């Protein structure tokens, strides 16, 4: 086995080992240190001395031993013999086959944590990314991220969360999926920072979703989220021009889309949708699938997309969904119908300062032949966005309106 | 020791980068892409050498809000800067061995690809960072 294999296997096993330890002993933060040391020991010993028959069992045993040492040291310092007695009574239970990763995920997405902390803790404990890697991906100093993660662990501990599937686990699953999707979009929007790290975040989100799906193979929204991310990620190579500017979907070179991801995503959502109950991730995946299936922008099945947005709107009160719905309506029934919806959305005020609303209006005015109106809207959109590549795109469009 | 490297630009500079004619020629797509690639490499090198603490770019001056007070009431003003007034455009915080090393890092910014008229007047400042009140009192 090569070094790459070893790294993959350790990364795969790390959350399972951490989960097993926390389930048995609690002590989230100390357990994490113990797991890190066990992983290091494995990385040193396995290549020389050969791989153990049961790598997961080996890691759990070594990490447990290390955790016991760490706790003993800690608690001797604190002179809390009564607690020492407490943990000593935990029987050296044999390593079972149960995978505790899911419970670990639920713990990281604890409702008492802010979304930022949930993301950081999930990437650290389940994704196995180092604090430095997470800090770089979010462009904050390492010390800041260390503090954020430490505080998060403390909140989990103080909340007295028990390490078992929480009774509200249906609600928690929502939080877990949201965190995974946030990690994905953080990588996908790639608005700042070294591009490489951001791409890795998207890959990590997809890996986490695959992991969750192995644990909950029958959950339609888990499958929906995975399909959505695969179908979105498939367009990555065509999304940006040479200057880093965003290329709108109808102008993307579809031959650059990643075919295997599209095939996998479509197969997944096609198999999932009829099983129900249907939810927002499945609907968004279905919309992405309709886009990805079209050989050209002109061949997109817009009436189907309008119908899917119609159902999606019943699930959420999200103005961005309404804006996308307006675009789909314009494509299916003409720009006037779309502009009417955009007008209503603007009157509602929730996107009144958002460049995307004016960019959509500009496109629709351009298509309906109102070039003067389109120019004004493009200019308005350009002044509202903080992204220079987007400003360049919008200013170019404004100038082209004459 | 930590140092801050500061760069400056006017609203006119931002408009030029965003592809607008401003009395001076707009940046072309190639100009803009070359600058982006340079910055990406510059940041990656700093991260690689372990000297990068943090870096941020600031949005265009026109998006600024200034808070002040008038007759005892607080007042918020939109975009108070003149078109040609140069204001902070972005910064890096680096942690390195000496002021000279920080200066050396900042000097690399002189190679940033940009239209000639921009390069002719571009500059950066390097300033030591005060870590705590103790630094000021010593």
TrEMBL record, chain A:
Pfam families in the cross-refs: DUF6596, Sigma70_r2, Sigma70_r4_2
Molecular-function annotations in GO: DNA binding; sigma factor activity
Entry-linked SUPFAM superfamilies: Sigma2 domain of RNA polymerase sigma factors, Sigma3 and sigma4 domains of RNA polymerase sigma factors
Residue ranges occupied by any RNA polymerase sigma factor 70 region 4 type domain in the UniProt entry: 105-154
InterPro entries: DUF6596, RNA_pol_sigma70_r2, RNA_pol_sigma70_r4_t2, RNA_pol_sigma_r2, RNA_pol_sigma_r3/r4-like, WH-like_DNA-bd_sf
Coiled coil feature spans: none
This protein's record includes keyword Transcription: yes
BP terms from Gene Ontology: DNA-templated transcription initiation
Highest taxon listed in the record's lineage: Bacteria
Name of this chain's protein: RNA polymerase sigma factor (Sigma-70 family)
Provenance organism: Kribbella amoyensis
Automatic annotation (TrEMBL), chain B:
Domain of life: Bacteria
InterPro entries named among the record's database cross-references: Dimeric_a/b-barrel, YCII
Domain YCII-related: start-end pairs: 1-109
Pfam family membership, one: YCII
Gene3D superfamilies to which the protein is assigned, alphabetical: Dimeric alpha+beta barrel
Similarity annotation: Belongs to the YciI family.
Protein name, per record: YCII-related domain-containing protein
Organism (species): Kribbella amoyensis
Phylogenetic classification of the source organism: Bacteria, Bacillati, Actinomycetota, Actinomycetes, Propionibacteriales
């Amino acid at each position: 086995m090569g070094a790459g294999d070893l790294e993959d296997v350790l990364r795969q096993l790390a959350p399972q080992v951490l989960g097993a330890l926390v389930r048995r002993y609690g002590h989230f933060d100390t357990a994490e240190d113990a797991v890190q040391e066990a992983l290091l020991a494995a990385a040193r010993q396995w290549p020389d001395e050969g791989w153990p028959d049961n790598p997961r069992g080996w890691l759990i045993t070594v990490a447990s031993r290390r955790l016991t040492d760490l706790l003993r040291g800690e608690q001797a310092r604190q002179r809390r013999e009564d607690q020492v007695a407490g943990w000593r009574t935990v029987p050296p239970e044999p390593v079972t086959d149960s995978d505790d990763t899911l419970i670990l995920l639920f713990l990281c997405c604890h409702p008492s944590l802010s979304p930022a902390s949930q993301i950081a803790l999930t990437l650290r404990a389940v994704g196995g990314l180092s604090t430095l890697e997470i800090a770089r991906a979010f462009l904050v100093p390492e010390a800041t991220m260390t503090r954020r993660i430490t505080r998060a662990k403390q909140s989990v501990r103080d909340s007295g969360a028990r390490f078992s599937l929480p009774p509200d686990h249906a609600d928690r699953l929502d939080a877990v999926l949201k965190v995974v999707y946030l990690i994905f979009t953080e990588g996908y929007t790639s608005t700042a920072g070294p591009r490489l790290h951001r791409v890795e975040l998207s890959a990590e989100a997809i890996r986490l979703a695959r992991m969750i799906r192995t644990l909950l193979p029958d959950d339609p929204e888990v499958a929906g989220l995975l399909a959505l991310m695969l179908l979105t990620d498939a367009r990555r190579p065509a999304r940006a021009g040479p200057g880093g500017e965003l290329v709108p979907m109808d102008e993307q070179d579809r031959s650059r889309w990643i075919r295997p991801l599209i095939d996998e995503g479509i197969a997944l959502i096609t198999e999932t949708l009829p099983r129900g109950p249907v939810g927002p991730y499945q609907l968004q995946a279905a919309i992405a699938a309709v886009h990805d299936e079209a050989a050209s922008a002109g061949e997109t099945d817009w009436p189907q997309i309008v119908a899917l947005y119609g159902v999606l709107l019943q699930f959420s009160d999200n103005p961005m969904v309404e804006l996308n719905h307006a675009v789909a309506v314009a494509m299916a029934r003409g720009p006037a119908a779309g502009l009417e919806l955009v007008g209503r959305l603007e009157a509602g005020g929730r996107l009144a300062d958002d460049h995307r609303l004016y960019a959509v209006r500009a496109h629709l005015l351009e298509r309906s032949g109102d070039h003067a109106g389109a120019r004004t809207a493009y200019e308005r959109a350009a002044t509202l966005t903080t992204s220079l590549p987007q400003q360049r795109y919008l200013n170019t469009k404004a100038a082209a309106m004459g | 020791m930590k140092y801050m490297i500061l760069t400056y630009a006017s609203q006119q500079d931002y408009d030029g980068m965003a592809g607008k004619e401003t009395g001076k020629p707009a940046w072309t797509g190639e100009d803009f892409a070359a600058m982006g690639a340079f910055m990406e490499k510059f940041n990656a090198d700093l991260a690689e050498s372990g000297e990068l603490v943090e870096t941020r770019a600031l949005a265009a001056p026109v998006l600024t809000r200034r808070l002040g007070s008038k007759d005892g009431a607080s007042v918020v003003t939109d975009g108070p800067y003149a078109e040609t007034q140069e204001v902070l455009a972005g910064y890096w915080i680096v942690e390195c061995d000496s002021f000279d090393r920080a200066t050396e890092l900042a000097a690399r910014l002189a190679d940033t690809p940009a239209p000639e008229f921009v390069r002719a007047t571009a500059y950066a400042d390097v300033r030591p960072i005060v870590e705590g009140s103790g630094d000021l009192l010593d």
